[in-house]
Amino acid sequence: MSPSNYEDAIFSPKTMLLSEVEPEEVDWLWQGKIPIGKITLIAGDPGLGKSFITLDLAARVTTGAPWPGGAATGRRVGSVLLLSAEDGMADTILPRLDAAGGDPKLVRVVTEVQANSADGSETISRPFRLDWDVDSLGPRLEMIPDACLVVIDPISAYLGGVDAHRNSEVRAVLAKLAKIAEQRQVAIVMVDHLNKNAKGPAAYRTMGSIAFSAAARATWIVTKDKNDPDRRLFLPLKNNLAVDSMGFAYRLAPKDDTAVVEWEPDPVSTTADEALGEGAASRRPSPKRDGAEVWLRANLADGPRGAKEVTVEAMAADITTKTLQAAFKELGCIRMKDGMKGGWFWSLPKDTLVTDEMGIFGDESEIEPLDSGVTEDATLKEQKGIFEETHQRKPDISFEGERLPCPVVLEEQTIPDPKAVIEDSHQEHEDAYQDVMGTFKENPVIDEDAHQGMGGFESDSTLRDDLDEPGEDDRESDSDELPC
Q: Fewer beta carbons within 10 Å, N or C terminal of the chain?
């Protein structure tokens, strides 16, 4: 049924009593590590061997070889469906699979999708993309009855038009992928990269939306051993289906003009936070800040939002501005300005969020780290905004007998470094003063109306004071508008 056929339909929730559900045990591809019928995520920096690991998994599935740590294979020998966007089949994937001892007759690689033209005279082909083709994976897996494992390496290469940083879009695609895994009883392993935000907890180091890690029932981090650069660590970041929190170490050993994964026999107890460096493990504990980080990340997950709106919602959630500022800096968030006169927007770090679909944020140079916190004092915020806006523009001085226009009412602004602004503004005012006096000297006779329109010139020093210093009324004004 097409969407147009049920636009006016009234839907109601379908429910089921838990007493009517038959309990089932979790089936594992790799016991306690990679569940069948679920999504697993493997994330790490480039060059650490994530693709080698996925082919090591494929080799064990296609041959029934035992898993690292001595765990027996959870199933009989089965087939693998591989989506690989970065490696060539002939010169990379096949040699690596052979070196790992896998059976290439049981590994199928998705190269593209095809369809016949309307008249059947030609075949049309294009790259596979999840937003368009995810529903076709189920029927394809039905044609591979012994399929046990699906590898998508990397997941970002197959998203198509899905914005990897928008929570709702990512969840919509991954929900379909998770349903296919459950229906076809296969383990789906996605490969992703890490972002560069080393300040936050390891749970937020996966590239793109947090939805990738949230949709996965198990997430594994691949990283270097700090004490041995040739040693790699395969560590659990989350595991919703098992209590085992142990990881493994491995090395890439040369073999047959390529390399293979050599797993160490004993598990390692290092945590992902410890291995990834100066993140949450090295910070002084702060439950309030940690809670604010979770809140802020969730509220910015779908893209940039107005700073004022976020601040008000944070206060409503009992998050103080001091705590919100600490969370903002800890996450490495950025602020973006909508042009010279627009308001400020907040977003997650560039490595986590790099979208500007509306094109409202202008030049890249206008994006900078937050250098001051949010204040609850509305009057002070207003004064800061007036101060910043005043010094962003040169005086608009006219000799046409018209009074200077009163600037528009400002929304929230964030004060820059006062010392730098004062130095810059003094230079701007000096230049404006010289321009005005040069024109005045060239045209000493000024029309009476124009003279009155400018408020009159009493002396050079008077003009200089008007440009450099606000009047007493200006300094004490509580108006929403700039003094005219």
A: N
Please state, in angstroms and rounded to a whole number, the distance separating the CA atoms of residues 93 and 105: 13
In 7-163, where does DSSP find H-type helix? Answer: 50-63, 94-99, 130-142
Count the neighbouring beta carbons within 10 Å of the beta carbon of residue 436: 19
The rounded distance, in Å, linking the Cα atoms of 239 and 262 is 24
* In this structure, CATH architecture of domain 23-280: 3-Layer(aba) Sandwich (3.40)
Q: Is the peptide bond before 95 cis (omega within 30 degrees of 0)?
A: no
pLDDT tens digit sequence for 398-429: 334 444 344 334 344 444 555 555 555 555 55
Boundaries of every domain in the chain: 23-280, 284-376, 381-476
Residue type, 435: D
From residue 484, alpha-carbon distances to 406, 408, 435 in Å are: 5, 11, 21
CA nearest to 101, candidates 209, 228, 255, 230: 255
The DSSP annotation for 71-109 comes to PPPSSSS-EEEEEESSS-IIIIIHHHHHHTT--GGGEEE
Cβ atoms of residues 208 and 170 within 8 Å: yes
CB atoms within 10 A of CB 82: 21
Name beta bridge partners: 344: 337
pLDDT tens-digit profile of 91-104? 999 999 999 999 99
Segment 109-118 long-range contacts (CB within 8 Å, at least 24 positions apart): 109/82, 109/83, 109/84, 110/81, 110/82, 110/83
Gyration radius from the chain CA atoms: 31
- Orientation angle between helical segments 287-299 and 321-331, nearest 10 degrees: 70
- Token pair recorded at residue 331: 């996450």
Tokens 């990897």 sit at which residue? 164
Residue 301: closest CA among 333, 338, 276, 343: 333
Give SS3 for 306. strand
Q: What does the alpha-carbon distance between residue 160 and residue 176 come to, in Å, rounded to a whole number?
A: 15
Q: How many of the other CB atoms lie within 10 Å of CB of 56?
A: 25
Q: With a cut of 80, say whether residue 395 has pLDDT above it.
A: no
The rounded Cα 263 to chain-centroid distance in angstroms is 32
Burial of 118 (0-12, 13-18, 19+ CB in 10 A): exposed
CA 26, CA 32: separation in Å to the nearest integer? 9
Q: How do the residues of the chain divide into helix, strand and coil, expressed in percent and rounded to 5?
A: 40, 20, 45
